[in-house]
Design brief:
This protein is mainly beta. Helix content is 7%, strand content 40%. It is built from two helices and 15 strands. The strands form five sheets. The protein has a four-stranded antiparallel sheet with strand order 4-15-7-12, with no helix packed on it. The protein has a four-stranded antiparallel sheet with strand order 6-13-8-9. Strands 1-2-3 form a three-stranded antiparallel sheet.
């Protein structure tokens, strides 16, 4: 899906239709997409991509504790985030988000993962208060991460690896109505604890929110 605008012939765009998330279709014109609920948009330099950010979750989280992704960007490296600007895409970029993943670090103890997923509430928010998807954390399963079980030689036991969903893009449903991140539009994801969340390991852990998307960049 890389190339110059002239590479996107009508036949090429039409052939991609089955790869698009629900609510996104090719119009038959070069580099142009129709997004349900948004309208026709130009995506001349379009590619499949992800937008991600990582936040540290403390071991003890009293009722009302809240964490925010995509907002606090300064000081982070590429393991943390690929965002350059707080809460918005760089100038000239747009994205069509079709999947939201909440991914706890693979070495997070299974009992800690279970505690976070059982007590947390998540929401993806546009602008100031436009909530476009929300609910208990199991509504944000992960496409990525470890799966299965591990054996330890120290005590000859087998331990399960807990993930929120099978780590397979085909197993995780795409958003029926994609989220359009227009140039300059702000967005964030929050994790809110309406119940106290105390991690059994008594150790903090990291979690990413990963937005799978179709993304356009300005032509160079």
């Amino acid at each position: 899906m890389y190339g110059n605008p002239q590479s996107y012939r009508p036949q090429f765009m039409a052939g991609l239709a089955q790869q698009f998330p629900p609510g996104v279709t090719a119009t038959g014109k070069p580099g142009e997409l129709y997004i349900e609920g948004v309208g026709t948009r130009k995506f001349a330099d379009m590619r499949e991509d992800s937008i991600y950010d990582r936040v540290n979750i403390a071991a003890a989280n009293p009722i009302g504790t809240e964490y925010v992704w995509f907002r606090d960007i300064p000081g982070k490296n590429l393991l943390d985030t690929n965002m350059r600007d707080a809460s918005k895409l760089p100038q000239g970029q747009q994205a069509v988000v079709y999947r939201i993943n909440f991914v706890l670090r693979d070495d997070t103890p299974p009992e800690d993962k279970t505690e976070i997923l059982s007590t947390g509430y998540g929401a993806f928010i546009l602008d100031d208060n436009n909530v476009v998807k929300e609910g208990p954390m199991p509504l944000f399963p992960q496409t990525y991460g470890a799966h299965g079980s591990i054996s330890t030689t120290l005590n000859a036991t087998t331990k399960g690896v807990v993930t929120s969903g099978v780590p397979s893009a085909g197993a995780i449903p795409k958003l029926m109505v994609p989220i359009y991140l227009a140039e300059g539009r702000t967005f964030r994801f929050i994790l809110h604890f309406y119940e106290a969340c105390n991690l059994p390991s008594a150790a903090a852990t990291y979690a990413w929110v990963i937005l799978d998307c179709l993304r356009s960049r300005p032509l160079v």
